[in-house]
Amino acid sequence: MKLSFMAALLFGGICFGQNNTDASLYMKADKISYLTDIGSESGDLYQTIGHHGPAVENEWMALRIYFSDKVAIDVYNKANRGLELKKAHWYPTAEQQKEGWGADYYKVGATVGLGGVRLWDGEKVVPLNPVTNRLAHVGKTENTSYMEMISRGMPYKGKTVDIKVRVTVFSGKREAKVEAFSLNGEKVQFVTGVNYFKGFETKKGNNYIAVWGTHPEDVAAEVVGIGAAIKYNPKDYVKNTDDGTQYLLISKPTKYLETEIVSASAREKEINTIDKLEAYLK
């Protein structure tokens, strides 16, 4: 009995400690050999890297950062909990989607996507481009996975700055953390936010913005309602704005900024409406 009891405790501990996250970075021509780092002086490996940039996932969603002048964050939504990146490579077949796999329902366009980072020069949004070099890195810890995009040598207010965007997903936690760093010590004004389309529902609170609606379909097998939200500390920002395609948050001058992002879909059992998403955020 003691052996059985101890075995049960050990098994339970192993299950409890399981890391339900993953990271993915590979060349499109080789889906077998996974990388931890890649770089480009042009700053654009969009067509070369699998899923157009580094990606991470937890049980509820996958996220990628476009390796291009966009450096936007895009979402892969799931119908059921589980890890799908290494098998689906972001684009499962129509048959797989009908069988319960997730899909790329989210459309970023020219926006920051969900929680993507750009800069503000006092008058307008400044993309993290051009650069002297752009680097991507992915990694995994005991209970997280993360991806980083470093944009080096980009012009900003008459100087050049190096900006790192880091996205971390946690095992057992729906929200992902997005961090922005000014690596060479210069204070900058970061811009982040969440995009939306015509007909979307919007909910705003003191520390969150949530949207829900259908994105223009281009690669998914069906059109599905998608929710997206960003949680933030209002003390970090000097201005909120809406350019007609995205709700933007403009930070105070700083070397570091942190937000949380979350997404859900109408195919889920738990959070499948904007009211449920807002209740979760509260």
Describe, in short, the structure shown.
The chain is mainly beta.
Topology:
Layout: H1 2-16, E1 22-24, E2 37-40, E3 55-57, E4 61-65, E5 73-77, H2 85-88, H3 94-98, E6 118-120, E7 125-126, E8 133-140, E9 144-156, E10 159-170, E11 173-182, E12 189-195, E13 201-204, E14 208-214, E15 225-231, E16 237-242, E17 246-251, E18 256-265, H4 274-281
Antiparallel strand pairs: 1-3, 2-8, 3-4, 4-5, 6-7, 6-12, 8-9, 9-10, 10-11, 11-18, 12-17, 13-14, 14-15, 15-18, 16-17
Q: How are the strands ordered across the major sheet?
A: 2-8-9-10-11-18-15-14-13
* CATH topology call: Beta-galactosidase, Chain A, domain 5
Gross morphology is globular
How much is the radius of gyration in Å? 19 Å
What is the CATH architecture descriptor? Distorted Sandwich
CATH class: Mainly Beta
Helicity range: 10-25%
Weakly predicted, low-confidence segments: 1-16
Question: What structural class results from the helix and strand content?
Answer: mainly beta
Largest sheet: 9 strands, antiparallel
Terminal CA distance reads 45 Å
**SSE run:** HEEEEEHHEEEEEEEEEEEEEH
Strand content: 35-45%
Distinct helical segment count: 4
Overall pLDDT level? 93
Oligomeric state of shown chains? single chain
Number of strands: 18
Count structural domains. 1
